[in-house]
């Protein structure tokens, strides 16, 4: 593809290619040398299977996609939801192998696929065309042919020199996590014949065992890589590198505020920087350098919050739903963290604050529901720093939304957000305007 340059010799980049809040960074990739070195090593060692884990927005997908490209490895990607089964993932992976079996050349390497394997692939493909109706005439489920086992899939992947990337595997049920561990063991064995075949499982969690439920036998054959949240230095690099690519300039105060609001999440940093540009009519590399006014932070955050309003309501309503009769656990915990008015709080601080209003609240309840609130099932409302053992809100805007929502629920004696969402959104935007005006957030960085 021919590169396009402007009058001054700058390569033209589209805004959506530079700031990418919803997909892996390509053009505006920030190097993370230590992580890259570890992943590269695991990709090169024959038989090693990979688990990449960390909080949502930490850059797991970007890291592994860059590593695969850097090492010139073919890959197919399947994504998981809570109801995904291993059988469904196998079918999905099989389907995505089609380009490698319909042509002689892969994107990055020649694939030595024998005629007999192509015939076997075509035969299974034909069998998968049949569908089995379930309950109604409008619902169908594809049948998994007997001959499509995970060993056979590993063989197909191996012949295509292809890595299997499974995203969000932490979302599936425990039984499926155990099955994947067995599949990984099979991939270790088949690597004797196909050295490049391997599985990479990605999960937005605190522990690799939350991604794959593996046993001791598999442990020596696994590479576990924790991807931490981005540092302020790394967030600054995203903003400054993007500015160079687009030939624009962000004033220092705007950079600091963007970093502070991003709260270590690359995804928020990208969307705020995108909004800064979009609101100033920048959709590609500028011919003449343009300075973005610092005042744009106000509108950028309003746009972000408006886009997230429905998501905020759903997250909070889901957290507040519970069957327990005696204690409103999530509500007590979230209220305690907010009233402590600190960036990071300990388990004991939360429990002590709860005891001020609920004297008989059990310590075990606090532990159990904190775990739920940091899990993917709890929408990762909170996050925990494993080193310090402290908890904080993942999204600072959600913290503000949560504070106002809980205050209103308490005053109106309600259990769900319901029809007060629009009022909350309006109040939240006013609160943000005030905090930006008084420069409250910019001081944090």
UniProtKB/TrEMBL annotation:
SUPFAM superfamilies registered for this protein in UniProt: P-loop containing nucleoside triphosphate hydrolases (SSF52540)
Entry-linked PANTHER family: ATPASE DOMAIN-CONTAINING PROTEIN, DNA-BINDING PROTEIN-RELATED
Keyword annotations: ATP-binding, Nucleotide-binding
Transmembrane region(s): none
Gene3D superfamilies: P-loop containing nucleotide triphosphate hydrolases
Domain AAA+ ATPase span(s) in chain numbering: 46-245
SMART domains referenced in this protein's UniProt entry, alphabetically: AAA
Full protein name: ATP-binding protein
GO terms, molecular function: ATP binding; ATP hydrolysis activity
Organism: Cerina litoralis
Signal peptide feature range: none
Keyword flag ATP-binding: yes
